[in-house]
Amino acid sequence: MSDCSGPEDAKVVIIGSGFAGLAAAATLVKAGFKNVLVLEAKERIGGRVNTTKPFTENIIEVGANWIHGQKGNPLYKIAKEQNLLSEGACASRNMCLPRSVSSRDYFFKEDGKPVPKKIVDQVSSLFSKLTDKAFDDELAPKHRDLTLGAYLDDAFGESPLAATEDGQQVFEWCKRTECTDEACSSLYEVSASQISNYTALEGGFFNTLGPGGYRAILDVLLKDVPSETIKCNAPVKSIRWDLVKEGNCEDERCPVQIVCENGQSFEADHVIVTVSLGVLKEKGATMFEPALPANKLSAIKNLGFGIVDKIFLFFEKRFWPEDCEGIQMVWKEGPEDKDVYDSLSEGDAWKTTWFKKITGFDTVARHPTALCGWITGREALYMEKLQDSEIGDTCLRLLRSFTGWSVPAVSKMLISRWGSDSQVRGSYTFVPDGVDGVAAHKALASPLPPKDKSRGKRHLQVLFAGEATHVNFYTTTHGAYLTGVREAERLISFYAD
Ligand SMILES: Cc1cc2nc3c(=O)[nH]c(=O)nc-3n(C[C@H](O)[C@H](O)[C@H](O)COP(=O)(O)OP(=O)(O)OC[C@H]3O[C@@H](n4cnc5c(N)ncnc54)[C@H](O)[C@@H]3O)c2cc1C
């Protein structure tokens, strides 16, 4: 087909309207592609970016919230140029990770006593140093083949802090909290050495957007995409490819056919698949005809796609001190304690203590009377099945027993359920222990048919974009965006040759 047509005639279907899909669409349209169609299963665009205004005129980010890093980050650049970044008090972080613990984070033990600040500072700063070593690829040989959890335990064990009960318990909180960053159920399931493939961009981890949130950046991309290009409520059921045996100008048939759940079908020269790794795990083996090659299927199987959920609690009035940025919960026997982890690895006992996986409740930008709880992994998925009221009651019980403060009833709640969302099936990618992340991300990204098996230029029938296909920026919005641009540019140079 490419011998007879140029970008004006090429039919490109993009599946998914998250950052990857919209970046691909905008790049292609700007390059002169006239037949671009985005098929989106949901009734809204954005995918894992979901900026909502459920209760007031102020936004809540149910999905992505921050721009991670500034230097070399295309989304930071757009946000900066378009004046979309937050300034002043709202520009600060609103989530407490070990490397960003501030004196305004209140740490409590389950007996209601505060954890001595000195211990929190010492343990969290040691924890940051140890994780930095893994991110910077500076692990000692003895730690390279371990899980992240096992490496951290071993390295922390050499510190005198490990000899104290408070030290051990704050260390467990650090590991539990790091699970949100890795989107995993437990650090004992993540590879220690592979996380060095993730590249952290300079300029701060928590860059907060202004009142328009992430949606404002999507709107910038949408300016380049004519509205009729995007079709929402159009879940794709199957992708048939390799439909033309020999490419020549007489043969009018397109090599790809995309069939939606409602039976509507679209022919295309190229399809860019941007559905999440979670969706590929569930449907990758049946969605494609012919089936995906074995190396792609095993990449889909081997990479991890974890769950991170947010629990937004709204109160009539603030009950925490004005300087408090977050209430963090330190358990005597938390789920990321190795002995506890081992004892709960089989059976269902962990379900009765699912709430122990909540790390704490952070304050929420622009919502002075709201808190956001964080939970990950199998416990998050378990929570997703519960009624909001049960989750709310549990959170109130925790807040009351840990702080001893007078905590009023919750007035409203908003709970994300990313694991149960059939169009996403999780939150973001991680590299499990024993998996070669680089090889898996690359296998996931490679277009079909494989070049060595294609006839001439006809190999770009099915292309893959999305956060999970980026070797260094997986998990992030900017990673997703860059993969969309990457696949669009692949097509642009295909037609430029
Ligand atoms: C709770 C949470 C917090 C996060 N926080 C951050 C953060 O602070 N910073 C950051 O950088 N990243 C964050 N992320 C990750 C970030 O949101 C993602 O990496 C990014 O948005 C992924 O974009 P994508 O285009 O690859 O995939 P998606 O956004 O998942 O887009 C894929 C699209 O495909 C659609 N789709 C699925 N199946 C079909 C089908 N059969 N037919 C048609 N359409 C289909 C989906 O509905 C979706 O719209 C967070 C994610 C979550 C869930």
Automatic annotation (TrEMBL):
SUPFAM superfamilies: FAD-linked reductases, C-terminal domain, FAD/NAD(P)-binding domain. Keywords: FAD, Flavoprotein. Residues 19-492 form the Amine oxidase domain. It holds the Pfam family Amino_oxidase. InterPro entries: Amino_oxidase (IPR002937), FAD/NAD-bd_sf (IPR036188), Flavin_monoamine_oxidase (IPR050281). Its cofactor is FAD. This is Spermine oxidase. It comes from Labeo rohita (Indian major carp).
